[in-house]
Write a structure and sequence with these properties.
With 255 residues, the chain is an alpha/beta fold. It has 2 domains: 30-117 and 218-253, 3-Layer(aba) Sandwich (D-Maltodextrin-Binding Protein, domain 2), CATH 3.40.190.10; 120-215, Periplasmic binding protein-like II (D-Maltodextrin-Binding Protein, domain 2, 3-Layer(aba) Sandwich), CATH 3.40.190.10. The protein is built from 10 helices and 13 strands. 33% of the residues are buried.
């Protein structure tokens, strides 16, 4: 049976539907969420709090500050393997990636980066009882080298050491470090701040060499998302020139 509805009733139903779906501007803004991708194995930038399991770290606190400044009410953190981050950004699964990600020419072809917010090199981490001495890249020849898939450390080792060593890739730095501790690899190559953190956390490990790559970390957004990128850059500049930045550095790096 068909029902004949008046214009007024139709209008009422339409408005009710819009409100229910959260399409009214006021309703959506009150629940505005920034979806952020990260890889939570990169302390002190992003890691899981051992007591609560919550994802925390320098990058996480930074993106929450940025989100607040550009009008987002909430931040949803999505944890995944590092090599899944850019595909997740491209597919729309996340809006932003912050994960100690180095700005490279190759990555800039598929995503857009914010202004740099951190500079780092690559460190070589070994077991103290291994007696391994590294004074140059060539000293890595013949070694079993652990790296995290998709990182600049992995890219550097493949390019500069290549077939002269056995390169073992792991989905996370935690897995690479466990392999080092268990003797499955001789060294691990990873970003300097994180290598130093692991060395301080595990007395059996030490940093023996720094590869000066002078890398710059950036926050990634989808290619062409100029509005969000400009908002992030504006907020980032403001934070980096304020006491908030010094407080973040002190909290996560102790200086």
């Amino acid at each position: 049976m068909r029902w004949k509805l008046s214009v007024g009733v139709l209008a009422f139903i339409l408005v009710a539907s819009v409100i229910a779906s959260g399409c009214i501007t006021g309703s959506s803004s009150s629940t505005k969420v920034l979806v952020v991708g990260t890889s939570a194995d990169f302390a002190p930038f992003e890691y899981k709090n051992p007591k609560t399991g919550n994802i925390t770290g320098f990058d996480i606190s930074l993106i929450k500050l940025i989100a607040k400044k550009i009008g987002y009410k909430k931040v949803k953190i999505v944890d995944m393997s590092f090599d899944s981050l850019i595909p997740a950004l491209q597919s729309g699964k996340v809006q932003v990636v912050i994960a100690g990600m180095t700005i490279t020419a190759k990555r800039e072809k598929v995503v857009d980066f914010s202004i740099p917010y951190w500079t780092a090199d690559q460190d070589v981490l070994v077991r103290k009882n291994s007696n391994i001495k590294i004074n140059s890249i060539k000293d890595l020849y013949g070694k079993k080298i652990g790296v995290e898939t998709g990182t600049t450390g992995a890219i550097y080792v493949k390019k500069h050491v290549g077939k002269n060593a056995t390169i073992k890739e792991y989905s996370t730095y935690v897995a690479a470090i466990e392999a080092l501790k268990n003797g499955q690899v001789d060294v691990v190559v990873l970003d300097s701040p994180v290598a130093k953190m692991f060395a301080s956390k595990y007395p059996s490990l030490e940093v023996v060499y720094t590869i000066h790559t002078n890398e710059h970390y950036g926050i990634a957004v989808r290619k062409g998302d100029t509005k969000l990128l400009n908002q992030i850059n504006s907020a980032l500049k403001s934070i980096m020139n304020s006491p908030e930045w010094n407080n973040l550095v002190k909290e996560y790096f102790g200086s």
